[in-house]
Recover the amino acids of this structure.
């Protein structure tokens, strides 16, 4: 059983994770044992956070599939939603 | 692993998980007679619906759905109650059901001397049918005899990451054991046709998948015009869904990851086992009769906001996407996939759903059954009334 982390990653190919509950700006987000980063924004529960930098125009991947494209450069730890993807 | 369940073998080789005597009105005019029969013989299951001759443009669809509900293996015997002058005759429903080999009787109220006498005669017929079905006993079957309908309604931001993927794990298990799962609600597949088509077993199934979804998308645009974007509603966006693809991907997770073997019309039983897509509306109350008519013995229904809806002849298993809902509507929920948000593995919840399906198939009642949430049969309509 996984130790509880603040995000869920549905597919290993995903470049976004989903917040299990609201994540405060600046909070440490643990992905795996030795992999963590800070949340650059507040992330509402159920919303997406960038697991890595996503350059403008490249794919946002969730469920291992393309769900949209970045409208601007998205930095690791950023909130990912309609303001920066389409 | 070799899970099995205890079901009722029907003469056509199908296996029921319930053993109902169903009373089917051929037209809405006789719902009252059916209600009287249900009062006299409470063990029967009435399939009240609103079809009348004003819906004669739907006659072939509704006739097919009512007939196929009677053919569902959860139904051990059928009484069809007609009026006598209606578009869909009692005999046109009864005769095709009879071909499955199960006991079927029909009567027409106009020929029985009115509603009271028809109800009394109907009640006597039902008592006899019950004595026949009660002789049927449960025996053991492998999961290849199961056909599971997949439904989601009142979804929330977590449906696509907890309840639906957990059901997807259960779907993979059922399909690997040789069983069938049926995914429906075309509008909730919009934006994912290339992904579903990739899973099709051949070109023909891929083409049908793409056509079914693009027609749903076109219909949505034709009907809603500029409001078509509401397929992804403001509530979805507040919940964290950014695009229609993201929302639909969450929905199709229910069907797991195995190949898609067939695409069928609304209310039509598939001819192959495996993952099946059924053309149908994205509205729970109309979707459930389609799944039941397609022969599903059990429906697994994920929800984030919560709904009590069940179906008269099929156990409906409610899977809550979050623990708050599970606690809030405790009496209506069967499985809590919200545990995933608290750190439980998806696969654990998936296995829990498989276990629950096997238990329900062997007779354990679902919350919707305990609460008598069968309701009436909402028949899908494609044409305006006249």
């Amino acid at each position: 059983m996984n130790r509880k982390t603040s995000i869920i990653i549905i597919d290993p190919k995903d470049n976004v994770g989903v917040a299990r509950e609201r994540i405060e700006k600046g909070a440490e987000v643990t992905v795996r044992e030795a992999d963590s980063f800070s949340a650059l924004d507040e992330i509402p529960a159920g919303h997406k956070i960038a697991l890595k930098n996503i350059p403008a125009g490249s794919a946002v991947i969730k469920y291992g599939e393309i769900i949209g494209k970045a409208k601007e450069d998205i930095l690791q730890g950023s909130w990912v939603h309609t303001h920066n993807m389409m | 692993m070799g899970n099995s369940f205890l079901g009722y073998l029907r003469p056509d080789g199908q296996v029921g998980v319930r053993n109902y005597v169903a009373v089917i009105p051929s037209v809405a005019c006789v719902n009252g007679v059916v209600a009287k029969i249900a009062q006299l013989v409470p063990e029967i299951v009435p399939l009240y619906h609103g079809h009348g001759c004003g819906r004669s443009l739907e006659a072939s669809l509704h006739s097919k759905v009512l007939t196929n509900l009677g053919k569902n293996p959860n139904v051990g015997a059928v009484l069809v109650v007609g009026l006598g002058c209606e578009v869909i005759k009692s005999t046109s429903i009864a005769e095709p059901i009879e071909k499955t080999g199960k006991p079927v009787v029909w009567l027409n109220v106009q020929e029985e001397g009115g509603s009271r006498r028809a109800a009394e005669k109907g009640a006597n017929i039902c008592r006899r049918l019950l004595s026949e079905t009660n002789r049927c006993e449960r025996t053991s079957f492998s999961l290849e005899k199961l056909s599971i309908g997949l439904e989601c309604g009142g979804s929330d931001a977590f449906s696509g990451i907890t309840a639906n993927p957990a059901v997807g794990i259960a779907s993979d298990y059922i399909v690997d054991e040789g069983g069938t799962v049926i995914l429906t609600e075309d509008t909730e597949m919009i934006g994912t046709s290339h992904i579903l088509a990739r899973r099709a077993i051949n070109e023909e199934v891929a083409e049908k998948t793409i056509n079914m979804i693009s027609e749903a998308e076109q219909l949505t645009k034709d009907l809603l015009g500029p409001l078509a974007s509401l397929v992804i509603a403001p509530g979805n966006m507040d919940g964290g869904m950014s695009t229609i693809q993201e929302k639909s991907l969450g929905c199709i997770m229910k069907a797991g990851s195995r190949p898609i073997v067939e695409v069928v019309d609304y209310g039509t039983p598939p001819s192959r086992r495996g993952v099946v897509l059924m053309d149908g509306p994205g509205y729970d109350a109309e979707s459930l009769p389609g799944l039941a008519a397609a022969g599903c013995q059990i429906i697994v229904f994920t929800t984030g906001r919560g709904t009590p809806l069940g179906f008269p002849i099929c156990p409906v298993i409610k899977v809550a996407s979050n623990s708050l809902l599970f606690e809030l509507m405790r009496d209506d929920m069967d499985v809590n996939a919200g545990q995933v948000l608290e750190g439980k593995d998806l696969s654990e919840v998936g296995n829990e759903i498989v276990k629950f399906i096997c238990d329900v198939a062997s007779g354990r009642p679902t919350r919707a059954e305990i609460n008598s949430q069968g309701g009436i049969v909402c028949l899908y309509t494609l044409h305006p009334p006249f």
In short: The first strand of chain A starts at residue 7 and ends at 8. Chain A has a mean pLDDT of 92. DSSP finds no helices and eight strands in chain A. Chain A touches chain B through 27 residues (CB under 8 Å).
